[in-house]
Structure formats: C-alpha cells, structure tokens
What we know:
3 copies of one chain form a homotrimer. With 222 residues, chain A is mainly alpha-helical. Chain A has helices spanning 4-28, 34-56, 62-65, 67-82, 84-87, 93-115, 120-141, 147-150, 152-171, 181-199, 215-218, and strands spanning 175-176, 179-180.
Amino acid sequence: MSDPPVLLVMDLAGTFAFALNGALTAIRAAHLDIVGVITLGVITAIGGGIIRDVLLGVLPPATFVDWRYLAVAAGGGLIAFLFNRWLTRFTSLIDVLDAAGLSLFAVTGAGKALAMGVGPAQAIILGATTGVGGGTIRDVLIQRIPSVLSSGLYAIPALVGAALVVVADIGGVNNVLGVPVALGAAVVCFLIRVVGLHFGIDAPKPPGTGPEGSAASADDGD
Amino acid sequence: MSDPPVLLVMDLAGTFAFALNGALTAIRAAHLDIVGVITLGVITAIGGGIIRDVLLGVLPPATFVDWRYLAVAAGGGLIAFLFNRWLTRFTSLIDVLDAAGLSLFAVTGAGKALAMGVGPAQAIILGATTGVGGGTIRDVLIQRIPSVLSSGLYAIPALVGAALVVVADIGGVNNVLGVPVALGAAVVCFLIRVVGLHFGIDAPKPPGTGPEGSAASADDGD
Amino acid sequence: MSDPPVLLVMDLAGTFAFALNGALTAIRAAHLDIVGVITLGVITAIGGGIIRDVLLGVLPPATFVDWRYLAVAAGGGLIAFLFNRWLTRFTSLIDVLDAAGLSLFAVTGAGKALAMGVGPAQAIILGATTGVGGGTIRDVLIQRIPSVLSSGLYAIPALVGAALVVVADIGGVNNVLGVPVALGAAVVCFLIRVVGLHFGIDAPKPPGTGPEGSAASADDGD
C-alpha cells in the first residue's frame, strides 16, 4: 500500500465526487429541495465508508471522528446545489463522478481493511463494498434498482481495483514507476467503469432468459 | 443536559409515538396485516436508536439490553392495530406522532452522543440521525421517498433540536426557567416541524429546476 | 442448544438456500445479469447474519472472518445462474428455499445470540431478525414490499423457531428423541411457513380496513 497521505487525499476526493454525484442525482432524478439535495449528497458520500467501518468494527466511523469528511461531503452537496444549472451542461458528469467515487473508495477501502488485519479475500470484498455502498444507499432512497445489481460493469471494476491493492500489499509493492499503487489501482478501476459505460458493455445474462433480460440494466447510467 | 430520568421518559415517549405512527402508516399506506403492522411499528420506533448506537459503537444497542423499549414499541403497534378505526378520526394524528418522535429522538440522541464523548458537530448530526432514522427505514420498507429527503422542514427541526442540546451542554445549562433544556429543545423542534407541515413550508429548490421541482415534496405528509 | 457442528452445518445450509433463492429472484423478478445475480444471491445469503452480528457487536461479522460463508454464498449464486433454466421447472422452489433459509437462520441466530449472553426475549428477536434480514434486504434492493411486512406467516414461524431454541436452552434440553433441538426447531418453523404459503393463510387484518386490505399480501409468494 502507498503511504497514508495519498490514501487520505484519495478518500477526501472520493467523498467530494460522491457528494456532487448524490446531490446532482437528487436534483435531476428526484427533484428534491436544498435539504434533500445536501442530505442525499452527504449520505452518498459517507455511506460506503460507514458500512466499511461498521463491518470492521471501527466505531464511531472515521466520518464522525474526523470532521473533514463531513465538511467535504456537505460542501460538495452545497456546490452541486448552487451550480446545478452550470454543471448540467456536462451531460455525463454525473456518471464520471460516480465512477471516480467508486474507484477511489474501492482502493482506500481495501487499504483500510488490510490495515485492520483482515484476510485478502475479505479486504477485496470490503474495498468493493466501500465503493458501491454509498451509491447503493442513494439508489434505495430514491427508489431505483441499485447500479451494483443492474449495471454489469459496476461491481467488477471495484473488485479489480481492490484486488490490485491487495496483491500489491502481499507483494510488498508500494510504487510502480514512481506512481503509488493506490493511485494506479483507482485509475484502472475508473477506466474499466467509464469504458464499460461508454460502450454499454454488459455482463452475461442467465442462459434462457432471452433479450428481455436487458431491461434492468438499460435504465441504468441515468 | 438534563438529568437521566427526563431523558429516559422522553426516549420511551418517542418510542411510543413512532410505534403508533409506524403501525398506522402500515395500515393506511400499505394495507398490511397484524404482523406487518406491529413489525413496521417496532422498526419505526427502534430504528433510529439502533442506527445511533451502531454508529456510537454501543453494542448490543440499548433497545436490546433494556426490554422497556421493545415492550413500549410492540405495545404501541398493538394499540394502533386495535384502535385503528377510532384513531383514524384524527386526520393529522399520523403527522403529529411523527413530529413528536422526531423531536424527542433528536434531543435524546444528541444527549446520548454527548455522553459518549463525541464532538459537538457529531453530536448534532447523530441526534438528527436518531430523529430521522426510524422514519427513513419505515419509508424505504413501504417504498416511499423518505421524508428526510422530500420534506423541506424535516431534517432542519431535528438539527435545531439537537443543536440546542449541544449548545446548552457546552454552556453548562441544564434548565431554563425551571424547564429542562432537553424538553424545551424537543418542543422547539416539534413546533418548527408542525408549523412547517401546516403551512406547507418548503426549503428552497435548486436554481433553474422550475416549478416541477415541487413534485417530490408534494406527496409527502401523507 | 445442540452442539456447534450441527449449528455450523445448519448455518451453511441456510446460507446456501438463501444464495440460491436470492439469485433466482434476481433472474426472475429483476432480470439482472451475472454480476447482479451473484451479488443479490450473496447479499440475501449473508445479510441476516451480518445484521445479527452488528447488533451483537461481533465485528467483523462471522461472514468475513470465516471464508466458508462467502464461498458457499457465491457458489450458490453461481449455481443458480448456471442451472436457472433447469431450476425453473420446480415452480415453488424459490419459496421453499426462502422458507429453508428463514428456518435455519432463525434457529442458528437465536443460538448465537444466547451464546453471546443476551436475554431470552432478545435472543428470540435476534434469531427472527437473522431469519428475515437477508430476504428483507433482497426485497428492498429490487423494490418489493418485504415479505416480513406483507406475508402473515413469515415473521411468526421465525419467532416460533427461535423461541423453541431459547426455551430448550433454558430447560437445558439438547436433544428430543435423539434429534438435536436446533434441527427440530428449524423443521417446525419450516413447516409453519410452507403450510401457510400453501394454504394462503394470512394473519388478521386491522378492524375496519375491509377486503382491500389484502392487496399487499396478495402479491407476495412470488
């Protein structure tokens, strides 16, 4: 794993990306007011980390002990509320922010799980859970099927990003060509997610369920 | 903060109010049978406190250690089931009970968070989370957009009530004119919520989203 | 209570049953792809145990410490995905698997709660919560009213199964006619659930809500 400062910066960046994403989702998909917008931004931003910390038994969660997470989350929500009209011009921004949060949290989540001494498989799953957790709570609250279920390439890049961190940790590798492993793993996760979104790549459907099986994933990538 | 007996009575009163509210919601909005009615009443009543205790790391939660919470929650659900036809006459009762539970739990939740030694901002957020938590789980289970997202004046009174408790605690004030601070803070929270409901006050909508932005909050206050 | 090996086998059997059920539900009710199918299978399989362990303060949950649960859950999801077309022939299989998971987890959950030293009432509720937890998360994620709310005989058999375990524990009884109490309690729970499903038995509706009150439970038993 890379050193803590890199992880902290990545964690706060992921918090900010998910806060913007959650708040913009609240505006576009659910037409909420300022309280709903900021609340959904904050929940999306800190939900994944809270699930991770509860499962690791790190209580109260880092979000509550360290005020910077709450400040960045609330600030992101407020910025999305104020500059909503301007941000709307970038049509795929909401998906890019989601991919950024997913990638950053999958990597930092796996790193924190390793630091708590859990096994490799558990660290990968907890990392992916951190990445998909906030967005899943967001989708449940506004009554959408969560992306982690409906979008083929959502859980997979998170698992890949987390696995890269775990493999590097086992191998004792901190940097590759001067780039911290954590940063590289997040970039890989991000690229898989964005490429999958752009080309509409789906994971295989169950045998025998026919083309109507694509309905659930088609309304994703909102 | 006021003394423990006041907090315990307020906590049990909030449990009872949310149990009635959750059970009546199960009857009116979701047409559930006796098991569904009592289950939703109990979950609404103890959900907020469980979220608070999990986040504080107080496990098992107070609800499970102290049988009085479960008894009051189940009793409230049963009373709502039995006297449903009579209670239906009071058309706004379901909203008033929700406002009562919100106010009482925001205040007692902030008090418990302070007693566990978390910081002021964290205590305010945990108090508000205690207040809105049970109703949010209730709404998710019966597939409604949670009030905390869709209703402008739902999170705000909870934050105000919790903040009054925290400010009084910092100032070392326990009573104002003989009234315990906790009770006064709950009354303030309750009045903001009820006045907001009565006059249909909404928080500002994002700039540029137009009048259709009010759709989500219009179907609140069921 | 019976001895640990029996409980472990029952716990893994419940995990497998819920994994198959969750994955088949993902295919039939939500038309998800392979990632969504396995994810919903795993969440359904380990969700109840995670809720139980969080509430008991046993963190990280057994699911993460013991790799067998994750392996059985993922394997069950994969088997359901691969043999979906063949499994579909057994029309009530999805309900039978749900009843099996409910029964096994209610019993093992109550046993684990007792082993952690909580009181009898708490052990019964935590056992039932373990049984209904995974299915409730499954239903919330795919936007159905959870069975625990809409189906009269879902929470009740779970409470009965858990109560039998607690009563036997208080009485110091481990076996009845050579059959471990845990196994017998699970069979009782399973039979109540399956008989209730088969005959469409519902718990009483609130007085005065009329026949339209049956709408919510009619679409259960999918």
